[in-house]
Amino acid sequence: MILRAPARPEPDPERAERLDDLDVALHHLGGAVYPAGAAALPFLPELAAAPGLPLRAAIVELPR
User: Fold this and answer.
1) pLDDT, tens digit (0-9, with 9 covering 90-100), for 47-56
2) Whole-angstrom Cα distance, residue 35 to residue 16?
3) Count of beta carbons in the 10 Å neighbourhood of residue 43
4) How far apart are CA 39 and CA 21, in angstroms?
5) Cβ atoms within 10 Å of 31's Cβ, excluding its own
6) Residue 2, Cβ neighbours under 10 Å: how many?
7) Which residues neighbour 22 within 8 Å (Cβ) at sequence distance 6 or greater?
8) Partners of 27 in the β-ladder
9) Cα-flanking dihedrals φ and ψ of residue 31, to 5°?
10) Most exposed of 9, 13, 34, 46 (fewest Cβ within 10 Å)?
11) Residue 22: closest CA among 2, 39, 8
12) What is the pTM of this model?
């Protein structure tokens, strides 16, 4: 659910917050990488390829 939330096609005024939630689930500001990060990584290119996706660049930058 958290992985798909930023890519929903309908308008979502909280899309940026949902992307932040995904970012926090993958890694923390201190540099810690959570196990969810490795599991989610293969799905990020598919997510970023969704047609008409707002915030595409932010999704591509998640694995930084």
Assistant:
1) 888 888 888 8
2) 23
3) 12
4) 16
5) 6
6) 14
7) 2, 3, 5, 6, 40, 62
8) 33
9) 100, -5
10) 13
11) 2
12) 0.67
